[in-house]
Amino acid sequence: MYPTLSYLIHDLTGLDVNLPVPTFGFVVALSFWAAYWVFTREFKRKMAMGGIPPLSVHRLMDTLLLCCGVLGFAGAVLLAMIEDPHGFHYNGLNYYGGLIFGSLTYLVITRFKGIPFAVAADIGSPGMMLAYGLGRIGCHLSGDGDWGTVHTAPAPYWLPAWAWGCRYPHNVIHEGAYIPGCGGAYCTELVEPVYPTSLYEAIACLLLFAWLWFLRRRITRPGLLFALFAFLVGTERFLIEFIRVTPRYAFLGLSQAQYISLLYIGLSIFMYFYALKSGSNAKIVPIKT
């Protein structure tokens, strides 16, 4: 794994470059930039269609980036501490905490700018999915503890062993046993291989982003795209939690993320019927061939 960019550069090029930038932080910054680009594109498209009032998109995005970033980070820290107060670390923050606090901040600011709730939610859906997928790449590359349960079964012939069961050498949280001969600051790896769940989530969410990006011009009834996003992100996270190492509650044996996932699925159902009831003139735009 690559706790800093120095490790990544060395693995890719063989060069020893002193670049102690945390890989997780670098990828998170990249995910913010990618989400900024997607959000900007969608705001401009909706404004050109007359779906939102005229506004300075870049000024709005600067405000959103600052406020949602700060409050989203606070939410990610808060829910991570609630989920596991004894094993909390700043590298593996709680995604749902960031999503909930950041989303509420986003909706308050956009509502203040005169953008309807359902339209603002649709605009944000692809960008949120993209940011999540890219963020999970950072989790996997750095080995921040967001991995799965022990998985020692042989890998299928068509799949690399590290994508089936990974020991996360040089992980950023110093988990596991010492790597013989290692002289760096990150010299541990897991004793047994585990499911690389952060990698699975990254692949799934990037594919789901591509689907939402494809559908955004075709689903025009306000709120439906967000309903689909909420259902997809809730279902994906609920299922992956069954093979993740996560604290679980006695009631039903589910994790914090699974309970929140169920709320997101419930929200998606509510938004679906809300969109059907409130957007009578909207339609699905046929795909042009």
From TrEMBL:
BP term (GO), one: lipoprotein biosynthetic process
GO cellular component, one term: plasma membrane
InterPro entries reported in the protein's UniProt record: Lgt (IPR001640)
Membrane-crossing segments per the record: 20-39, 60-82, 88-108, 115-134, 198-215, 224-245, 257-276
The keyword Transferase is assigned to this record: yes
GO molecular-function terms, A-Z: phosphatidylglycerol-prolipoprotein diacylglyceryl transferase activity
Keyword Nucleus: no
UniProt keyword annotations, A-Z: Cell membrane, Lipoprotein, Membrane, Transferase, Transmembrane, Transmembrane helix
Top-level taxon in the UniProt lineage: Bacteria
Family listed: Belongs to the Lgt family.
Name used for this protein in its record: Phosphatidylglycerol:prolipoprotein diacylglycerol transferase
Species: Dinghuibacter silviterrae
